[in-house]
Write a structure and sequence with these properties.
heterodimer, A: mainly alpha, Cytochrome C Oxidase, Chain A, 18 helices, 65% helix, 1% strand, B: alpha+beta, Helix Hairpins, Immunoglobulin-like, 5-stranded mixed beta sheet, heme (chain B)
Chain lengths: 620, 355
């Protein structure tokens, strides 16, 4: 087991350190790298889709491969890129913002990451073993339950494993935020990012079980001969749609709420103003989370639920626009009267407002149940959800990364390159997706492999493809910026943005134990309060003492690997019962690791007071 | 309801935008160029929602631009510390209540339209037409139970009256969408039957799509709605009712084709009335708008299709029926001369359906 105090050098030692780490800051790095990698894979899939649709009657890829491409693009971007990148931010920031030394369950934190990574890898292995899943990221039965080959099996097993990781992560943050806040950090003094992480974790806790159930039913239908979705044997295919969207709609808010929190912190910091209407913002967040569970059937207006159900869900959907509007106006009034600095983080946040407002507009339009009979499953919907997920979540991730990069990696991302990356992405985004609203209304359904000459859809699609390549350029500039910053930029100060919350009271990057002394929080924006009173740092809440730290562990990695191996066994036992050996080996490894964890005491270690004084703050 | 909406419409400055939009999209495909009751109603609803939402967007952008210009940090202001306002209760109430009112304004026509389009009047009494629609990978079957007519791919309806559709699927979920006449509705497998209605204003041949991912050839599962006058419709019905599936073709090649058809194709493809279709019903095939919904309607394409259907619609279920090229030619001759009705897509006013 690695002991973080003993600094080992060398690549091997570093890899071992990361595989066994339970430090939330290092787990954040892992989430960032893995999520970023999947983001690039998903982006590549998007480009292939756009090349196929660049001109009518195109044959760039075959219809079957195209369906795999759209399925994997959606699945990858939602589950393997957006969610882990959000977890990267949550891990990097939340414990620092609430004045904690780590999350409540560091071991589970690591387990959550490795489950996600092995689940994601399992899903992507399908490319090399005879075909990826091809029933859309929504995986509607019976198309999915009867899809030939093993593609959908990979979807089921991969998401089941990755989903368990997400659920664990959500529970962990819930407990962390409830139990680990520093003295004085009452709920109504928590920074907005912590608040939105809190609500997001609640959503994860209640939404993911619905997906888990759906995936289990699908798994038994495909692998063990049950007939939950098979109408000829008395099953019901629509149940999948309900289960999926009871999970799927809250999932949308799981993706968007954390970046709402990040935007709140960013607007406030770069306007040098306290967040306008803090309690209204908190209230709006809670309301969005609550209403998020009441609207799932607006994805199903054309399923034939009848006018009564459709009307109820139409009205509840429109209701969500109200708390979202509250947020937009409070952000605008946070800037009102402030002193706005156009840093790159702020630029992304400013780009977000008009973009997301358009996404919200089309959201209300889609919520109008009858009109949805025209919009549904067309490019209008594609345009809408990219406006909210790219214009909201991805813009938010870029903003948050520029904002917290110094806290994560100790350096400020180059601002000039940041500006240079923003514009092609921003312009490319609107070029790609704005026109798609019209393509949809002009009669182009989504998930169409091709369209014909003479349908009037060629120009719009060409523009859209050009835009996609501009977005790719923006992403490449960002990647270059990451490398450039790592090599050329100087070390960042503790507080490069004149920040307001606790994380900026720590060095960039913070020491592995975060706070030498637990801080005392005296109000909203605790660091700002101290600064305004002329103090340099935060008032500590305790005298300097020994710090209890958890040991690292390889067990989370082994447990996840066990499930990964067992996953193959489950998928291929349909063809050959010998594959049950893989199930046995994988589950054996899994349970043996669990047993070790349960029965072998691992009490962690202490950093002694004397060491803390000697080594000082900057020690990593 | 349609009355006041119709009157209000010109008031919206956004109708300018709609006119602009009407410039894009094909006449018989675009939801922005409604040619039927449902599409018209829904375009009105879209315009109302767009108008309300554009109002919100303009307000947001006005504040946004003002704030950005007025409060951007200028040189020499680096140390200026703005007043730390906590919030403002009246403002919060304003931007909660006004959106609620706006949404209520939108909710009323939304609910009205939702119920309007769900009209399921008892049909037997007023003699309205019912069509059973079945979605299949990757074609559409249309059965007229009261008239005892079956056909596939081209759905004939009369203009000016409501045609009720009872919809289901024989395999996976599909979605029936004719953008310029009405919205869409899913076809579900099993007993889970859905209904909707079509009411076309103008004669024409309208494009239909499958809108729910249903497999490899999802994007090729096109069909047409042929809207004709009531007289022409009655003519078509009586023509279709009088089909003689056994009729002997005139040319020798078509005669041989009929034999080959009976040997190789009839297991799945019916000519004449057959409510449950395994493969597409081929009645009146000579007057189809397209071959397999996507290829231009000529003999050459038909031969190519018969020889290798998978090349045009990957994953379709007609694979593996090997006929020689000569047989394919003969079968094509036979099918192309199946001219059962005088009412054809070409005879429809202002038709662009053959496109």
């Amino acid at each position: 087991m690695s002991n973080a105090i003993v600094q080992q050098r060398g690549i091997g030692a570093m890899i071992w350190d990361y595989i066994t780490t339970v430090d939330h800051k290092k787990i954040a790095h892992l989430y960032l790298v893995a999520g970023g990698l999947f983001f690039l894979i998903g982006g590549l899939e998007a480009l292939i889709i756009r090349i196929q649709l660049m001109q009518p009657d195109s044959n760039f890829i075959s219809a079957g491969l195209y369906n795999e491409m759209i399925t994997m693009h959606g699945t990858t971007m939602i589950f393997l890129a957006a969610m882990p990148l959000i977890f990267a931010l949550m891990n990097a920031v939340v414990p620092l913002q609430i004045g904690a030394r780590d999350v409540a369950f560091p071991f589970l934190n690591s387990l959550g990451f490795w489950l996600f990574l092995f689940g994601g890898l399992l899903l992507n292995v399908s490319w090399f073993t005879g075909g990826a899943p091809d029933a859309g990221w929504t995986n509607y039965a019976p198309l999915s339950s009867t899809s030939p080959g093993h593609g959908v099996d990979y979807y089921v097993m991969g998401l089941q494993i990755a989903g368990a990781g997400t659920l664990i992560g959500g529970i962990n943050f819930l407990v962390t935020i409830i139990n680990m806040r520093a003295p004085g950090m009452t709920y109504m003094r928590m920074p907005l990012f912590t608040w939105t992480t809190f609500i997001t974790s609640v959503l994860i806790l209640f939404a993911f079980p619905a997906l888990t159930v759906g995936l289990f039913l699908m798994m038994f239908d495909r692998m063990f001969g049950s007939a939950f979705f098979d109408v000829t044997a008395g099953g019901n295919a629509i149940i999948w749609e309900h289960l999926f969207w009871i999970f799927g709609h809250p999932e949308v808010y799981i993706l968007i709420l954390p970046v709402f929190g990040a935007f709140s912190d960013i607007f406030s910091t770069f306007s040098k103003k306290r967040l306008f209407g803090y309690s209204a913002m908190v209230f709006a967040t809670v309301l969005i989370g609550f209403l998020g569970f009441m609207v799932w059937a607006h994805h199903m207006f054309t399923v034939g639920l009848g006018p009564i159900a459709n009307s109820i869900f139409a009205v509840s959907t429109m209701a969500i626009a109200v708390p979202t509007g509250i947020k937009i106006f409070n952000w605008l009034f946070t800037m009102w009267g402030g002193s706005i600095k156009l840093s790159v983080a702020m630029l992304w946040a400013l780009g977000f407002i008009p973009t997301f407002t358009i996404g919200g507009m089309t959201g209300v339009m889609l919520g109008s149940a009858a009109a949805d009979y025209q919009y549904h499953d067309t490019y209008f919907v594609v345009a809408h959800f990219h406006y909210v997920i790219v214009g909201g979540t991805v813009f938010g991730l870029f903003a948050a990364m520029h904002y917290w990069w110094p806290k994560m990696f100790g350096k400020v991302l180059n601002e000039k390159l940041g500006h240079l990356g923003f514009w092609p992405f921003f312009i490319g985004f609107h070029l790609t997706f704005f026109i798609q609203h019209f393509l949809g209304l002009m009669g182009m359904p989504r998930r169409y492999w091709t369209y014909f000459e003479g349908q009037g859809l060629a120009t719009g699609n060409l523009i859209s493809t050009i835009g996609a390549f501009l977005m790719a350029i923006g992403t490449l500039v960002f990647l270059y910026n990451v490398v450039y910053t790592a090599i050329k930029e100087p070390k960042a100060s503790a507080d490069p943005w004149d920040g307001r919350t606790l994380e900026w009271s720590l060095p960039s990057a913070p020491p592995f134990y975060n706070f030498k002394q637990t801080p005392l929080v005296r109000g909203l924006d605790p660091l700002w309060i101290e600064k305004m009173e002329g103090r340099k740092g935060i008032t500590p809440a305790e005298p300097l003492g020994d710090i209890h730290m958890p040991n690292g562990s390889i067990l989370p990695f082994l447990m996840s690997m066990g499930l990964f191996i067992a996953g193959f066994g489950f998928i291929y036992q349909v063809d050959n019962k010998l594959w049950f050996i893989a199930v046995a080996v994988g589950m054996g490894l899994f349970f043996a690791s669990m047993f070790t964890r349960s029965f072998k005491d691992d009490l962690g270690y202490h950093i002694h007071k004397e060491d803390l004084i000697e080594k000082g703050d900057g020690k990593e | 309801m349609r009355g006041w909406m119709g009157k209000l419409r010109p008031v919206f400055i956004f109708s300018v935008l709609v006119l602009f939009l009407a410039g894009c999209g094909e006449e018989n495909l675009s939801a922005l160029k409604p040619k039927g009751y449902g599409a018209d109603l829904l375009l009105d609803l879209m315009v109302i929602s767009l108008a309300i939402m554009t109002f919100v967007f303009v307000v947001v952008m006005a504040i946004y631009i003002f704030v950005l210009i007025r409060y951007r940090r200028k040189k020499g202001e680096e140390n200026y510390i703005p007043k730390q306002t906590e919030g403002n209760k009246s403002l919060e109430i304003i931007w909660t209540v006004i959106p609620v009112l706006l949404l209520l304004i939108l909710a009323v026509p939304t609910v009205q339209a939702t119920f309007d389009l769900a009209d399921e009047k008892p049909r037997e009494e007023d003699g309205s037409i019912t069509v059973e629609v079945t979605g299949n990978q990757y074609w559409w079957h249309f059965n007229y139970p009261d008239q005892e007519i079956s056909t596939s791919q081209d759905l004939y309806i009369p203009t000016g009256e409501r045609v009720y559709l009872d919809m289901k699927s024989s395999d996976v979920i599909h979605s029936f969408w004719v953008p310029s006449i009405a919205g869409k509705m899913d076809t579900n497998p099993g007993d889970n039957e859905n209904t909707m209605y079509l009411e076309a204003y103008e004669e024409g041949v309208y494009w239909g799509h499958c809108a729910e991912l249903c497999g490899q050839s999802h994007s090729l599962m096109d069909f047409r709605v042929v809207a004709v006058s009531s007289e022409e419709y009655d003519q078509w019905v009586s023509d279709m009712q009088n089909i003689d599936p056994e009729a002997t073709p005139e040319t020798a090649s078509a005669k041989d084709g009929k034999k080959a058809f009976e040997n190789s194709c009839m297991g799945c493809h019916a000519i004449g009335n057959s409510p449950a279709g395994v493969g597409p019903n081929l009645s009146n095939f000579g007057n189809r708008t397209k071959i397999a919904g996507i290829l231009d309607h000529n003999k050459e394409n038909l031969v190519d299709w018969i020889m290798d259907p998978d090349q045009f619609k990957p994953g379709n279920k007609m694979e593996g029926y090997n006929v020689s090229e000569k047989e394919a030619q003969q079968i094509a001759d036979y099918l192309m001369q199946l001219d059962h009705s005088e009412v054809t897509p070409d005879s429809v006013n202002g038709s662009s359906g053959k496109k």
